[in-house]
Design brief:
Layout: E1 18-23, E2 28-33, H1 56-79, H2 90-97, H3 104-122, H4 136-145, H5 148-161, E3 166-173, E4 176-183, E5 194-201, H6 208-211, H7 215-225, H8 229-238, H9 247-261
Helix pairs in contact: 1-3, 2-3, 5-7
The protein binds fe (ii) ion.
Amino acid sequence: MLSDLRKPEEWTKRRLSGVRRYCGCRGRWRVARAQAPFALPPLPYADNALAPVISANTIGFHYGKHHKGYLDAMNAALAGPAKDLAGLSLLDLMKATAGKPERAALFNAAAQTWNHTFYWNSLKPGTGGKPPAGSRIAARLDTDFGGYDKFRETMKAMAVGQFASGWGRLVIENGKLACVRTPNAETPATVAGRTPLLTIDVWEHAYYLDYQNRRADYVDALLDKLINWEFADKNLVQDRTFIGRSRAGAREVVTLLFVFANN
Ligand SMILES: [Fe+2]
């Protein structure tokens, strides 16, 4: 599953559809792909795998109703009033609609589709707490926050302090780890100079069934028991500013380039 996460724009793939047509220029039959709706990415775990921190009941509504609802709204717009954008990848669709009031509904649907896939992958059963000793992300927490405890305090403050709906996030900003909060559907994926590493959904639909108004307890539980440091570590390597700040990072990027070049 994690290998699918190296290209965020590929997370929400379109269903393939089309008809076979003969391509004279290449002398072979090819499938002409018609525009098809985006598909809902599967959860990276069973719907009860995060219990008791997040119940299967919450996952059922959050993933099955809210996440799917955003995706359905995006597909409906792309099949109707926003047909001119129907050929874009999810990431390009968010970039094309961000900051445009006349496209606000489509941006919200597309960004929330992306945000939720990122959130599901920011969590993993049996993890949380401090990142593995000696990992790249652990080293960066030490360098940029002065250690895990300061990161945890900052991340909790960002997530709990977000007024109304939104997201607490760990990002790379200008080459340095930072905790930020974003309201509503806003996402760092469309912001130049920001690379998302992890996120915590603090919309009420994420925690109210299990925690009611105790948002701080929900954030504590996620940080201590579900945060997926492996995911953050992989996202860290995607950030171009990582090259040059870490020999290990540079080595990994060179390895990835070698793999891509030979496949
Ligand atoms: Fe949500």
